[in-house]
């Protein structure tokens, strides 16, 4: 026997769990599950229930969706006993998590759409809270993940829906083991390995179980380290490095009065980590206040929103210093979020200081976000001198070491100097290895080699500002960006930022982009934001405003206040007003920079529109290069010198995980940053980490693609040979091989020099195999509708990798116009071209039937002087209305709320909540029907958007 059978893996796991302290119990049916639940709840609550009393508990537990059940698990239930007495029933002990009842069962069978048997279940107080799905060694873990998704659709929500109480899923093939939180929407990308505090991964099932599934630990993870994300109605479980960081902070507070800092790389989820640390610390009776400190007003608001998303009642923002004082003195508010500027005003201005002195001797824990930016000036000294019983903790993705420290009075202040011990680290190489952030693709464009007048000058030898500020240089860079933006962003599927060296240069670039758009040279949406304070000019360090200037910014005006007697400030202020007016015209808004509050509102709106992909390129100097997270941003154009933490922070705006299509963060540099990049990587990971952090260059990517092509040819040497694949196993092998091709092509296509001529595969050949691949996926969808189990269900076809925005309805309309006027000889050829696009382009496949209907019924009757686009849009409008009316009629929906849901989705990119979907129904369903109806209606709305709206304009 070459591989360990799944049954052996299951038996060994159960024996191990028994040894760890989980009591073995035999549960085969839902009736057994309920009977065991009654017994365990009686034991846990030290009482007994009559059948009628337990029936009331069972009805209570059956209500709601996954998120509702997670809340119910953590709440106590008021049971009215048969004699009229009221007692509180606890489902899990959150304060003393080891004091719960732990059991393990296997092969529990639940009947839903079909009968499902689950591998291994850990029950706590009788509720199934951990579900483990196993596959034999050698099988992809993804197979177990997709099998759980199948269970969620076919049986978890049926009958009493007790398996919707699962908090954590574990998937394993024996060699690799991962975990993730239960939620209605899941993605294999967000599964995690467990690791020790040194970030060494624990992959083997036996080793994982010994640590993670030990009764006290798994109960602690469920009760302390799962976060209920209120706004998304989803469960989130901390990743191991987040867990270890919070544990280190809690231990530091419990056992010392010393400070400490957490070094977790950008994009690793520091907000969630700091929220959980703050939340747990507020439960410590010895701590008067936990104060979470950020260094800008917009980050204050952003953090408040994120904290509220985790727990809507956890926090109130501090609108001004007066409000901060009020909350400091309010004993009902243990957790505050504020800015370093407000905190500084609170302890420095006499009218505030006199009030806050009442609590200066109380135990206060300060947690500083992005502490590499805000803790190196006088404000830090004032805080530690004023509060006599403080403890400080800093979070940073890029600590300040001696190499990247600013000198003050010949003294270099480092993060270690201020916060003492590093309590936990998780650097960029760790995050990339764990696939929690993306690698970078860095390309350099030597402007000077393209300009005849300075052809002999090397980029690295140039240190003359006038060259970088010349009109010829700026126009060359702008033209290059316009020419290559579609390639870098997958045809504007993603967005970009362009950072430049000064406000003067930004103004030149902006006005050039604006003029070129007016001249019809591009159709990109360009926006900008900058401070017109003089600190923007000539006082930058590492590409950022110096830390001391952050502290000196006017609290209310956020660094944009200007003195009228300085020409530079007046000029930049006027230009900012002008550019904001352009923005208002573009988006029908009414923003301004007349004061700090309106400027902040403008800044927030820009952030939202970048996230929603309404802005193609955001032009900046320093703003948004740190602290700004946007999953939809994948490209950074760089025309400024960056180094150390400034470089890593700026690059890291591009590397957030989103989907398969976003395979890396793209950096296109117009300055020679090679040595600066090497130095930064060496400082913040190690000097040999380049290959880990930066993807292979173009030539190596081509080699990888060609090797994958050879593997595909060995399986299906011609396109037609795909038709001859006999078994589903053969089809699975082909699907995986072509998926590798798609992934590599997705990376290659972002390189400016990419052409299929450099590869063994021809462009048409790729399209032909794409059609076969998608046909295979259509077959799987058909089988799923017929509830036919298929081995192909176990892989993600990642069709988004075939999506090309340039081949959309607008493009097809151009072909239809040609088809209308074509002679008979050309007509057949053009018809075939259109058919090929309709069959192979992901964007168009959902629209194929409608477009074919238009070609057959409408196109022949269009007059000589009629415009195809005008006729098509009228046709499309009628069909869209018909489809919307059909949808609302089929599902008994009110049309106006449905239109509002669609409109909100198109603007925000976020689908309506289950409650909003249910409210749109003409008639409210029962509690047990809510989830299935909501899921069905959501799917239909998304299909409607995909067919009638996406890719039409």
UniProtKB/TrEMBL annotation:
* Molecular function terms from GO: type I site-specific deoxyribonuclease activity
Per the UniProt entry, what species is this protein from, by scientific name?
Thalassobellus suaedae
Query: Per its record, how is this protein called by name?
Result: Type I restriction enzyme endonuclease subunit
Q: Which residue intervals define the domain Helicase ATP-binding in the entry?
A: 251-417
Q: Which SUPFAM superfamilies does the UniProt entry name for this protein?
A: P-loop containing nucleoside triphosphate hydrolases
Keywords associated with the record: ATP-binding, DNA-binding, Endonuclease, Hydrolase, Nuclease, Nucleotide-binding, Restriction system
- Its domain of life reads Bacteria
Main enzyme class: hydrolase
**Gene3D superfamilies in UniProt:** 1.20.58.910, 3.90.1570.50, P-loop containing nucleotide triphosphate hydrolases
Q: Which InterPro entries does the annotation name?
A: Helicase_ATP-bd, HsdR_RecA-like_helicase_dom_2, P-loop_NTPase, Restrct_endonuc_type1_HsdR_N, Restrct_endonuc_typeI_HsdR, SWI2_SNF2, Type-I_R_enzyme_R_subunit, TypeI_RM_Rsu_C
Task: Extract the PROSITE patterns matched here.
Answer: HELICASE_ATP_BIND_1 (PS51192)
Q: Which reaction does it catalyse?
A: Endonucleolytic cleavage of DNA to give random double-stranded fragments with terminal 5'-phosphates, ATP is simultaneously hydrolyzed
Instruction: Say if the entry is tagged with keyword Glycoprotein.
Output: no
Among CDD domains, the record links this protein to: DEXHc_RE_I_HsdR, HsdR_N, SF2_C_EcoR124I-like
Pfam families from the UniProt entry: EcoR124_C, HSDR_N, SWI2_SNF2, T1R_D3-like
Give the function comment from the record.
Answer: Subunit R is required for both nuclease and ATPase activities, but not for modification.
Q: How does it assemble?
A: The type I restriction/modification system is composed of three polypeptides R, M and S.
Q: Which NCBIfam families match?
A: hsdR
- Protein family (similarity comment): Belongs to the HsdR family.
């Amino acid at each position: 026997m070459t591989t360990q059978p799944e049954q052996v893996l299951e038996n060994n796991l159960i024996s191990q769990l028994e040894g760890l302290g989980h009591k073995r119990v035999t549960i085969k049916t839902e009736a057994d599950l309920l009977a065991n639940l009654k017994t365990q709840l009686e034991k846990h609550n030290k009482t007994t229930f009559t059948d009628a009393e337990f029936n009331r508990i069972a009805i209570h537990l059956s209500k709601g969706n996954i998120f509702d059940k997670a809340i119910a698990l953590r709440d106590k239930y008021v049971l009215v006993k048969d004699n009229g007495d009221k007692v509180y029933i606890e489902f899990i002990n959150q304060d003393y998590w080891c004091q719960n009842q732990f059991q393990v069962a296997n092969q529990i069978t639940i009947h839903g759409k079909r009968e499902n048997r689950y591998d291994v279940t850990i029950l706590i107080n009788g509720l199934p809270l951990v579900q483990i799905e196993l596959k034999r060694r050698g099988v992809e873990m993804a197979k177990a993940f997709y099998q759980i998704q199948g269970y969620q659709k076919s049986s978890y929500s049926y009958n009493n829906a007790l398996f919707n109480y699962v908090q954590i899923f574990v998937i394993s093939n024996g060699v690799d083991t991962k975990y993730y939180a239960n939620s209605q929407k899941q993605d294999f990308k967000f599964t995690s390995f467990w690791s020790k505090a040194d970030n060494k991964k624990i992959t083997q099932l036996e080793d994982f179980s010994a640590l993670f599934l030990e009764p006290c630990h798994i109960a602690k993870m469920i009760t302390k380290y799962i976060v209920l994300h209120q706004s998304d109605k989803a469960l989130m479980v901390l990743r191991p490095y987040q867990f270890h960081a919070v544990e280190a902070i809690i231990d530091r507070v419990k056992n010392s009065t010393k400070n400490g800092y957490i070094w977790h790389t950008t994009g690793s989820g520091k907000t969630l980590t700091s929220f959980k640390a703050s939340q747990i610390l507020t439960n410590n009776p010895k701590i008067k206040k936990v104060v979470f400190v950020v260094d800008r007003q917009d980050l204050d608001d952003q953090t408040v929103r994120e904290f509220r998303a985790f727990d809507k009642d956890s926090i109130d923002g501090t609108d001004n210093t007066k409000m901060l004082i009020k909350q400091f003195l309010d004993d009902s508010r243990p957790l505050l979020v504020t800015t370093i500027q407000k905190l500084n005003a609170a302890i420095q201005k006499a009218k505030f200081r006199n009030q806050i002195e009442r609590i200066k001797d109380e135990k206060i824990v300060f947690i500083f976000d992005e502490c590499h930016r805000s803790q190196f000036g006088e404000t830090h000294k004032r805080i530690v001198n004023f509060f006599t019983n403080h403890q400080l903790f800093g979070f940073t993705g890029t600590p300040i070491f001696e190499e990247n420290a600013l000198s003050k009075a010949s003294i270099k202040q480092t993060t270690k100097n201020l916060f003492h011990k590093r309590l936990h680290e998780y650097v960029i190489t760790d995050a990339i290895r764990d696939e929690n952030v993306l690698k970078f693709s860095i390309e350099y464009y030597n402007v000077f080699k393209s300009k005849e007048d300075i052809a002999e000058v090397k980029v690295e030898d140039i240190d003359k500002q006038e060259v970088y500020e010349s009109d010829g240089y700026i126009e060359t860079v702008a033209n290059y960006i316009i020419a290559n933006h579609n390639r870098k962003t997958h045809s504007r599927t993603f967005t970009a930022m362009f950072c430049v060296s000064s406000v003067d240069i930004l103004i030149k670039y902006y006005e050039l982009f604006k003029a070129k758009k007016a001249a019809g040279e591009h159709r990109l949406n360009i926006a900008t934001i900058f401070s017109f304070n003089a600190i923007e000019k000539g006082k930058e360090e590492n590409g950022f405003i110096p830390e001391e200037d952050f502290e000196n910014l006017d609290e209310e005006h956020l660094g944009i206040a200007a003195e009228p007697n300085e020409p530079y400030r007046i000029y930049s202020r006027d230009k900012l007003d002008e550019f904001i007016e352009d923005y208002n015209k573009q988006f029908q808004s009414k923003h301004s920079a007349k004061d700090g509050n309106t400027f902040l509102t403008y800044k927030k709106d820009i952030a939202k529109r970048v996230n929603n992909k309404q802005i193609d390129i955001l032009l900046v100097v320093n703003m948004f290069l740190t602290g700004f997270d946007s999953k939809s941003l994948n490209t950074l154009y760089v025309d400024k010198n960056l180094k150390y933490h400034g470089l890593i922070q700026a690059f890291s705006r591009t590397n957030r995980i989103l989907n398969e299509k976003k395979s890396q963060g793209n950096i296109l540099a117009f300055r020679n940053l090679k040595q600066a990049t090497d130095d930064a990587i060496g400082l913040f990971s190690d000097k040999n980490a380049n290959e880990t952090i930066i993807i292979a260059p173009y030539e190596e990517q081509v080699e990888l693609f060609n090797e994958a092509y050879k593997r595909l040819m060995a399986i299906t040497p011609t396109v037609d040979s795909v038709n001859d694949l006999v078994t589903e196993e053969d089809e699975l092998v082909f699907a995986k091989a072509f998926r590798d091709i798609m992934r590599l092509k997705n990376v290659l296509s972002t390189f400016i020099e990419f052409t299929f001529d450099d590869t063994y595969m021809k462009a048409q050949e790729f399209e032909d195999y794409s059609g076969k691949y998608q046909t295979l996926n259509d077959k799987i969808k058909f089988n799923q509708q017929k509830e036919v189990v298929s081995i192909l269900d176990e892989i993600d076809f990642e069709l988004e990798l075939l999506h090309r925005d340039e081949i959309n309805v607008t493009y097809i309309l151009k072909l239809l116009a040609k088809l209308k006027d074509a002679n008979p000889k050309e007509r057949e050829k053009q018809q075939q071209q259109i058919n090929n696009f309709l069959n192979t382009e992901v964007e168009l496949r959902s629209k194929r039937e409608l477009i074919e209907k238009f070609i057959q019924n409408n196109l022949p009757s269009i007059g000589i002087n009629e415009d195809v686009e005008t006729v098509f849009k009228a046709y499309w409008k009628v069909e869209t209305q018909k489809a919307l009316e059909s949808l609302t009629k089929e599902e008994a929906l009110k049309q106006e709320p449905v239109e509002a849901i669609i409109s909100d989705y198109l603007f925000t990119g976020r689908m309506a909540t289950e409650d909003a979907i249910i409210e749109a129904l003409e008639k409210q369903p029962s509690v047990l029907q809510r989830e299935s109806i909501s899921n069905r209606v959501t799917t239909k709305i998304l299909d409607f958007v995909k067919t009638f709206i996406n890719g039409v304009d």
